[in-house]
Amino acid sequence: MDFGFVFMGDCHIHGDVKFAEDHGFSHAWLYDSQMLGSEVYAALALCADRTSRIKLGPGVTNPASRIAPLSACGMATINELAPGRAIMGIGTGNTTRRTLGMPAAKVSELEEHVRICRDLFDGKITDYTEGDRHRKIKFLNPNLNYINIKDRIPIYISASGPKVAELAGKVADGVILFGAVHPELVKWMVGCVRKGAEQAGRDPDSVYVLSMTAFYLTQSDEEIETRAVREAVGPMVASSSNIFALSCHKDPTAIPGALRQDLMGFVDVYREPDAPIESRHLKLYEGYLQHLRDEHEKLMTKKIIQATTLTGTKQEVLGMIEAMRDCGVHQVAIQPIRPTREVVEQVAKEIMPKFAKK
């Protein structure tokens, strides 16, 4: 099992990324959300300059924030600064787009963006369209050390619903799950990925699977449904559950039955239908993934907390990770809510030794 860490897109985060690298973490993922944090490629460039082993990538970017050639150039630039350590994480932009009051990108737009980036990373001439103009493009100076496409850049697609998970299986090197901890959630998503891979004639086992989630160790006598626990992991629970619900709102039956009602209860947690449409998103996403909103607390049951986050006693959490591994997960990536280095140290000390490679 690999262990990654998920950071806000923060131009000052490079010190914490180096700290995670020094404690044995293999991957660092930075959120790409222009209304919530720093510009992700500027932050990743600083991380690349100050680290030597840890793999780096946006976790995740999307097709709507940048045109595909710009996304490809950003990733190839990070790959020049950190050769062989750059991984492109990309999804439909559920959060990023909604902080603008806009819908997530279409699956077809995601697929096209990935196609263009993959071709450019492979040094190919590829088709590029803007409006009714269709052109051929390629990187023109790949050998001048501005970018690096000699070292392969993997592409991982973020998925919280069947369509995007199948797309990941068809075209991506890996899939990023968000808040998938319960075996039923993991099996559901991994099953969709494998289906897509098989349809494309690919080996399903070749697709790398990681799950981003929160982490909190309780004492043996501590109840899960306490304010302290909810504040520590609640922002991740609300975000991931909302994205699962939005991804399946047209067909909730796609969600495993044991968790369907719990997850669909989060479908409207970032909506204010009575507020002005031009500005209602400004209030809803303030402090996103940083603080627990009072109105979300009643939804934070033990069941949903442990379905979407690594929360419980040390033995419970170790068991959760083992179950995730058995369901096909290759990496657990931790999103901290409380002080980052405290979480890094706790995971490195209490959890990672159990899964150290022999």
Summarize this, please?
This protein is α/β, with parallel strands linked by helices and 358 residues long.
In total, the number of strands is: 12
Which percent range describes the beta-strand content? 5-15%
Query: Sheet with the most strands?
Result: 8 strands, parallel
Briefly, what CATH class? Alpha Beta
**Name of the CATH superfamily:** Luciferase-like domain
What is the second-level CATH architecture? Alpha-Beta Barrel
Strand order of the largest sheet: 3-2-1-12-9-8-7-4
What is the mean pLDDT? Answer: 95
Shape: globular
Q: What's the quaternary structure here?
A: single chain
Helix percentage: 40-55%
Rg calc: 19 Å
* Structural class determined from secondary elements: alpha/beta
Write the layout of secondary structure elements.
Elements: E1 2-7, H1 14-22, E2 27-30, H2 40-50, E3 55-58, H3 68-81, E4 88-90, H4 94-98, H5 107-121, E5 126-130, E6 133-137, E7 155-158, H6 162-171, E8 174-178, H7 183-199, E9 208-213, E10 215-217, H8 227-247, H9 257-264, H10 280-284, H11 302-308, E11 310-312, H12 314-326, E12 331-334, H13 340-350
Parallel strand pairs: 1-2, 1-12, 2-3, 4-7, 7-8, 8-9, 9-12, 10-11
Antiparallel strand pairs: 5-6
